[in-house]
Amino acid sequence: MRIATGLLVAGVVSVGVAVTAFAQSPPRSAKAPQAIAAAPQAAAPAAAAAAPLPPPAPAKAACANPDALGVGRVVEIDTTGGPGFGFEHFKQLDFLRDKEVVLTFDDGPWPVNTPSVLKTLADECTKAIFFPIGKHATYHPEILKAVAAAGHSIGSHTWSHANLNNKKLTEQQQKDEIEKGFSAVKWALGSAPSPFFRFPALQHPPAMVTYLGTRNVAMFSCDLDSFDFKAGKPEKIVETVMSKVDKLGKGIILMHDFQKHTAEALPTLLRRLKAGGYKVVQMKAKAPVATIAEYDEALAKETKLPTVSSRPLNSVVQTISE
Protein backbone atom coordinates (compact mmCIF):
# COMPACT_ATOMS: atom_id res chain seq x y z
CA MET A 1 0.00 0.00 0.00
CA ARG A 2 1.29 3.46 -0.71
CA ILE A 3 1.31 6.27 1.78
CA ALA A 4 -0.18 9.69 1.29
CA THR A 5 3.10 11.12 -0.06
CA GLY A 6 3.51 10.51 -2.72
CA LEU A 7 -9.67 -4.79 -29.52
CA LEU A 8 -7.16 -6.44 -30.35
CA VAL A 9 -5.34 -5.74 -33.57
CA ALA A 10 -7.89 -5.68 -36.38
CA GLY A 11 -6.18 -4.76 -39.60
CA VAL A 12 -3.61 -1.98 -39.74
CA VAL A 13 -2.63 0.40 -36.96
CA SER A 14 -5.15 3.18 -37.08
CA VAL A 15 -3.73 5.90 -34.88
CA GLY A 16 -0.28 6.84 -33.58
CA VAL A 17 0.18 9.19 -30.65
CA ALA A 18 3.37 11.26 -30.67
CA VAL A 19 5.47 12.99 -28.05
CA THR A 20 9.11 12.73 -27.02
CA ALA A 21 9.95 10.44 -24.13
CA PHE A 22 12.40 12.86 -22.57
CA ALA A 23 11.33 16.15 -24.12
CA GLN A 24 10.41 19.32 -22.28
CA SER A 25 7.34 18.82 -20.14
CA PRO A 26 4.20 20.02 -21.95
CA PRO A 27 1.45 21.94 -20.13
CA ARG A 28 -0.98 19.59 -18.40
CA SER A 29 -3.78 20.59 -20.74
CA ALA A 30 -1.70 20.04 -23.87
CA LYS A 31 -3.02 17.43 -26.24
CA ALA A 32 -0.65 14.80 -27.51
CA PRO A 33 -0.28 15.19 -31.28
CA GLN A 34 -2.03 12.51 -33.27
CA ALA A 35 -1.11 11.14 -36.67
CA ILE A 36 -3.60 9.18 -38.72
CA ALA A 37 -1.89 6.33 -40.51
CA ALA A 38 -2.35 6.35 -44.27
CA ALA A 39 -4.28 3.51 -45.84
CA PRO A 40 -1.88 0.83 -47.10
CA GLN A 41 -1.04 0.97 -50.81
CA ALA A 42 -2.40 -1.81 -52.95
CA ALA A 43 0.43 -4.27 -53.53
CA ALA A 44 1.51 -5.16 -57.04
CA PRO A 45 0.04 -8.48 -58.21
CA ALA A 46 3.46 -10.13 -58.43
CA ALA A 47 4.47 -9.00 -54.94
CA ALA A 48 1.13 -10.05 -53.51
CA ALA A 49 1.53 -13.48 -55.01
CA ALA A 50 5.02 -13.88 -53.64
CA ALA A 51 4.44 -12.54 -50.15
CA PRO A 52 2.88 -14.92 -47.59
CA LEU A 53 -0.43 -13.83 -46.18
CA PRO A 54 -0.31 -12.61 -42.56
CA PRO A 55 -2.12 -14.74 -40.00
CA PRO A 56 -5.70 -13.63 -39.40
CA ALA A 57 -6.26 -11.36 -36.42
CA PRO A 58 -7.86 -13.15 -33.48
CA ALA A 59 -11.56 -12.55 -33.14
CA LYS A 60 -12.62 -10.20 -30.39
CA ALA A 61 -14.21 -12.08 -27.53
CA ALA A 62 -17.89 -11.33 -27.24
CA CYS A 63 -18.96 -9.29 -24.23
CA ALA A 64 -22.01 -10.67 -22.52
CA ASN A 65 -22.85 -7.29 -20.98
CA PRO A 66 -24.33 -4.91 -23.59
CA ASP A 67 -23.85 -1.98 -21.21
CA ALA A 68 -20.26 -2.83 -20.28
CA LEU A 69 -17.60 -0.19 -19.84
CA GLY A 70 -15.33 -2.15 -22.18
CA VAL A 71 -12.01 -0.97 -23.61
CA GLY A 72 -11.89 2.19 -25.71
CA ARG A 73 -8.49 1.52 -27.24
CA VAL A 74 -5.33 -0.47 -26.72
CA VAL A 75 -1.89 1.13 -26.76
CA GLU A 76 1.44 -0.64 -27.05
CA ILE A 77 4.36 0.73 -25.04
CA ASP A 78 7.97 0.63 -26.17
CA THR A 79 9.75 0.77 -22.83
CA THR A 80 13.24 1.39 -24.22
CA GLY A 81 15.02 3.92 -22.01
CA GLY A 82 12.47 3.68 -19.19
CA PRO A 83 9.65 6.13 -20.03
CA GLY A 84 7.56 7.42 -17.14
CA PHE A 85 3.76 7.68 -17.00
CA GLY A 86 1.49 9.53 -14.59
CA PHE A 87 1.53 13.28 -14.16
CA GLU A 88 2.02 13.12 -10.41
CA HIS A 89 5.70 12.51 -11.16
CA PHE A 90 6.26 12.17 -14.92
CA LYS A 91 5.16 14.90 -17.31
CA GLN A 92 6.80 13.96 -20.60
CA LEU A 93 4.16 11.57 -21.94
CA ASP A 94 0.58 12.79 -21.97
CA PHE A 95 -0.92 10.25 -24.36
CA LEU A 96 -4.41 10.05 -22.86
CA ARG A 97 -7.21 11.81 -24.67
CA ASP A 98 -10.01 13.58 -22.87
CA LYS A 99 -12.33 11.20 -21.03
CA GLU A 100 -9.80 8.35 -21.07
CA VAL A 101 -8.61 6.47 -17.99
CA VAL A 102 -6.17 3.69 -17.20
CA LEU A 103 -7.11 1.35 -14.35
CA THR A 104 -4.18 0.16 -12.21
CA PHE A 105 -4.04 -2.09 -9.14
CA ASP A 106 -1.18 -2.54 -6.67
CA ASP A 107 -0.13 -4.97 -3.92
CA GLY A 108 -1.75 -8.22 -5.04
CA PRO A 109 -2.24 -10.99 -5.71
CA TRP A 110 -4.40 -11.64 -2.66
CA PRO A 111 -7.15 -14.16 -1.88
CA VAL A 112 -10.77 -13.03 -2.16
CA ASN A 113 -9.97 -9.43 -3.06
CA THR A 114 -8.02 -9.97 -6.30
CA PRO A 115 -10.49 -12.57 -7.62
CA SER A 116 -13.33 -10.16 -6.80
CA VAL A 117 -11.60 -7.38 -8.74
CA LEU A 118 -11.05 -9.78 -11.65
CA LYS A 119 -14.73 -10.74 -11.71
CA THR A 120 -15.84 -7.11 -11.81
CA LEU A 121 -13.41 -6.28 -14.61
CA ALA A 122 -14.65 -9.33 -16.54
CA ASP A 123 -18.29 -8.36 -15.98
CA GLU A 124 -17.49 -4.93 -17.45
CA CYS A 125 -15.34 -6.44 -20.25
CA THR A 126 -12.49 -4.10 -19.41
CA LYS A 127 -8.77 -4.35 -18.68
CA ALA A 128 -6.23 -3.03 -16.18
CA ILE A 129 -2.56 -3.10 -15.22
CA PHE A 130 -1.61 -5.04 -12.09
CA PHE A 131 1.53 -4.28 -10.10
CA PRO A 132 1.99 -7.31 -7.79
CA ILE A 133 4.35 -7.57 -4.86
CA GLY A 134 6.91 -10.32 -5.45
CA LYS A 135 6.31 -12.08 -2.13
CA HIS A 136 2.56 -12.11 -2.73
CA ALA A 137 3.16 -13.58 -6.19
CA THR A 138 5.03 -16.50 -4.62
CA TYR A 139 2.28 -16.96 -2.04
CA HIS A 140 -0.54 -17.02 -4.59
CA PRO A 141 0.78 -17.83 -8.08
CA GLU A 142 -2.56 -19.33 -9.09
CA ILE A 143 -4.28 -15.97 -8.57
CA LEU A 144 -1.65 -14.11 -10.58
CA LYS A 145 -2.02 -16.68 -13.36
CA ALA A 146 -5.74 -15.89 -13.38
CA VAL A 147 -4.90 -12.19 -13.83
CA ALA A 148 -2.77 -13.05 -16.85
CA ALA A 149 -5.34 -15.48 -18.26
CA ALA A 150 -7.93 -12.68 -18.18
CA GLY A 151 -5.73 -10.60 -20.48
CA HIS A 152 -4.58 -7.92 -18.08
CA SER A 153 -1.10 -6.42 -18.16
CA ILE A 154 1.19 -7.36 -15.26
CA GLY A 155 4.25 -5.50 -14.05
CA SER A 156 5.95 -5.46 -10.64
CA HIS A 157 5.90 -3.52 -7.38
CA THR A 158 9.19 -4.72 -5.79
CA TRP A 159 9.81 -7.91 -3.84
CA SER A 160 8.60 -6.83 -0.40
CA HIS A 161 7.01 -3.40 -0.91
CA ALA A 162 10.05 -1.70 0.59
CA ASN A 163 10.17 2.06 0.29
CA LEU A 164 13.18 2.44 -1.99
CA ASN A 165 13.72 6.00 -0.76
CA ASN A 166 14.62 4.66 2.68
CA LYS A 167 18.10 5.99 3.44
CA LYS A 168 18.94 2.75 5.26
CA LEU A 169 18.85 0.85 1.98
CA THR A 170 22.02 0.68 -0.06
CA GLU A 171 21.81 1.14 -3.81
CA GLN A 172 22.41 -2.59 -4.23
CA GLN A 173 19.54 -3.41 -1.87
CA GLN A 174 17.28 -1.12 -3.87
CA LYS A 175 18.23 -2.94 -7.08
CA ASP A 176 17.69 -6.28 -5.33
CA GLU A 177 14.12 -5.27 -4.42
CA ILE A 178 13.40 -4.37 -8.03
CA GLU A 179 15.01 -7.39 -9.69
CA LYS A 180 13.82 -9.97 -7.17
CA GLY A 181 10.29 -8.63 -7.58
CA PHE A 182 10.35 -9.15 -11.33
CA SER A 183 11.87 -12.62 -10.94
CA ALA A 184 9.16 -13.60 -8.45
CA VAL A 185 6.40 -12.48 -10.80
CA LYS A 186 8.08 -14.37 -13.63
CA TRP A 187 8.19 -17.52 -11.53
CA ALA A 188 4.54 -17.20 -10.54
CA LEU A 189 3.40 -16.68 -14.14
CA GLY A 190 5.79 -19.12 -15.75
CA SER A 191 6.82 -16.37 -18.18
CA ALA A 192 8.24 -12.87 -17.94
CA PRO A 193 5.80 -10.05 -17.14
CA SER A 194 5.67 -6.64 -18.76
CA PRO A 195 8.55 -4.22 -18.08
CA PHE A 196 6.16 -2.03 -16.07
CA PHE A 197 7.13 -0.92 -12.55
CA ARG A 198 5.57 1.19 -9.82
CA PHE A 199 7.61 2.40 -6.86
CA PRO A 200 6.08 1.66 -3.44
CA ALA A 201 4.64 4.79 -1.84
CA LEU A 202 5.40 6.51 -5.17
CA GLN A 203 8.86 7.27 -3.82
CA HIS A 204 11.32 7.61 -6.72
CA PRO A 205 15.02 7.58 -5.76
CA PRO A 206 16.83 9.30 -8.66
CA ALA A 207 19.44 6.54 -8.86
CA MET A 208 16.71 3.91 -9.31
CA VAL A 209 14.90 5.99 -11.92
CA THR A 210 18.17 6.03 -13.85
CA TYR A 211 18.69 2.31 -13.23
CA LEU A 212 15.26 1.38 -14.56
CA GLY A 213 16.05 3.43 -17.64
CA THR A 214 19.10 1.25 -18.28
CA ARG A 215 16.88 -1.81 -17.78
CA ASN A 216 14.28 -0.52 -20.29
CA VAL A 217 11.52 -0.65 -17.69
CA ALA A 218 8.63 1.84 -17.83
CA MET A 219 7.82 3.56 -14.57
CA PHE A 220 4.25 4.27 -13.49
CA SER A 221 3.15 6.96 -11.12
CA CYS A 222 -0.49 8.07 -11.43
CA ASP A 223 -2.66 11.03 -12.29
CA LEU A 224 -5.01 10.43 -9.41
CA ASP A 225 -4.81 8.32 -6.28
CA SER A 226 -7.91 6.64 -4.89
CA PHE A 227 -6.39 6.57 -1.38
CA ASP A 228 -8.42 3.38 -1.01
CA PHE A 229 -6.15 2.13 1.76
CA LYS A 230 -7.43 5.01 3.90
CA ALA A 231 -11.11 4.63 3.03
CA GLY A 232 -13.38 3.26 5.72
CA LYS A 233 -16.08 2.24 3.26
CA PRO A 234 -16.34 1.56 -0.49
CA GLU A 235 -18.52 4.60 -1.14
CA LYS A 236 -15.64 6.87 -0.13
CA ILE A 237 -13.40 5.30 -2.78
CA VAL A 238 -16.00 5.89 -5.49
CA GLU A 239 -16.47 9.51 -4.54
CA THR A 240 -12.74 10.18 -4.26
CA VAL A 241 -11.97 8.75 -7.68
CA MET A 242 -14.94 10.35 -9.46
CA SER A 243 -14.35 13.80 -7.99
CA LYS A 244 -10.70 13.70 -9.06
CA VAL A 245 -11.25 12.29 -12.53
CA ASP A 246 -14.09 14.73 -13.22
CA LYS A 247 -11.76 17.57 -12.28
CA LEU A 248 -8.87 16.32 -14.44
CA GLY A 249 -10.98 14.95 -17.28
CA LYS A 250 -8.79 11.85 -17.68
CA GLY A 251 -6.01 9.97 -15.95
CA ILE A 252 -4.16 6.93 -14.66
CA ILE A 253 -6.06 5.75 -11.57
CA LEU A 254 -4.17 4.11 -8.70
CA MET A 255 -6.04 1.47 -6.69
CA HIS A 256 -5.14 -1.67 -4.73
CA ASP A 257 -6.52 -5.16 -5.40
CA PHE A 258 -5.16 -6.02 -1.94
CA GLN A 259 -7.89 -3.89 -0.34
CA LYS A 260 -11.31 -5.31 0.52
CA HIS A 261 -13.13 -1.99 0.14
CA THR A 262 -11.62 -1.50 -3.32
CA ALA A 263 -13.04 -4.81 -4.50
CA GLU A 264 -16.41 -3.80 -3.04
CA ALA A 265 -16.30 -0.33 -4.61
CA LEU A 266 -15.24 -1.41 -8.10
CA PRO A 267 -18.65 -2.41 -9.58
CA THR A 268 -20.15 0.98 -8.70
CA LEU A 269 -17.01 2.85 -9.75
CA LEU A 270 -16.92 1.28 -13.21
CA ARG A 271 -20.62 1.99 -13.72
CA ARG A 272 -20.01 5.62 -12.72
CA LEU A 273 -17.12 5.90 -15.16
CA LYS A 274 -19.30 4.52 -17.92
CA ALA A 275 -22.14 6.92 -17.05
CA GLY A 276 -19.66 9.79 -17.07
CA GLY A 277 -18.59 9.02 -20.62
CA TYR A 278 -15.13 7.73 -19.70
CA LYS A 279 -13.34 5.08 -21.76
CA VAL A 280 -10.65 2.69 -20.57
CA VAL A 281 -7.29 2.55 -22.31
CA GLN A 282 -5.49 -0.77 -22.03
CA MET A 283 -1.70 -0.47 -21.94
CA LYS A 284 0.41 -3.36 -23.23
CA ALA A 285 4.17 -3.71 -23.48
CA LYS A 286 5.91 -4.17 -26.82
CA ALA A 287 8.10 -6.88 -25.25
CA PRO A 288 8.37 -8.63 -21.87
CA VAL A 289 10.92 -7.67 -19.25
CA ALA A 290 14.31 -9.34 -19.43
CA THR A 291 14.83 -10.69 -15.91
CA ILE A 292 18.34 -11.34 -14.61
CA ALA A 293 19.30 -15.02 -14.37
CA GLU A 294 21.09 -14.72 -11.03
CA TYR A 295 17.94 -13.32 -9.40
CA ASP A 296 15.77 -16.03 -10.99
CA GLU A 297 18.15 -18.68 -9.64
CA ALA A 298 18.64 -17.11 -6.21
CA LEU A 299 14.88 -16.78 -5.74
CA ALA A 300 14.33 -20.41 -6.63
CA LYS A 301 17.05 -21.51 -4.21
CA GLU A 302 15.96 -19.24 -1.37
CA THR A 303 12.27 -20.10 -1.55
CA LYS A 304 12.75 -23.68 -2.75
CA LEU A 305 10.91 -22.86 -5.95
CA PRO A 306 11.67 -24.50 -9.31
CA THR A 307 14.05 -22.50 -11.49
CA VAL A 308 12.32 -20.32 -14.04
CA SER A 309 14.12 -20.76 -16.95
CA SER A 310 14.64 9.87 -26.36
CA ARG A 311 12.19 9.26 -29.01
CA PRO A 312 8.92 10.33 -30.66
CA LEU A 313 5.73 9.34 -28.70
CA ASN A 314 4.59 7.08 -31.57
CA SER A 315 7.78 5.08 -31.01
CA VAL A 316 6.88 4.76 -27.31
CA VAL A 317 3.09 4.63 -27.21
CA GLN A 318 1.17 3.30 -30.17
CA THR A 319 -2.54 2.67 -30.50
CA ILE A 320 -3.05 -0.86 -31.76
CA SER A 321 -6.81 -1.04 -31.44
CA GLU A 322 -9.78 1.30 -31.08
Automatic annotation (TrEMBL):
What is this protein's function? Is involved in generating a small heat-stable compound (Nod), an acylated oligomer of N-acetylglucosamine, that stimulates mitosis in various plant protoplasts.
Q: Do you know which InterPro entries this protein is assigned to? A: Glyco_hydro/deAcase_b/a-brl, NODB_dom, Polysacc_deacetylase_ArnD
Task: Give one GO term, molecular function aspect.
Answer: hydrolase activity, acting on carbon-nitrogen (but not peptide) bonds
Q: Name one GO biological process term.
A: carbohydrate metabolic process
Identify this protein by name: Chitooligosaccharide deacetylase
Which species expresses this protein natively? Rhodopseudomonas palustris (strain BisB18)
Instruction: Recite the UniProt keywords alphabetically.
Output: Hydrolase, Metal-binding
One Gene Ontology cellular component annotation held by this UniProt entry: membrane
Q: Where is the NodB homology domain?
A: 99-281
The keyword Nucleotidyltransferase appears for this protein: no
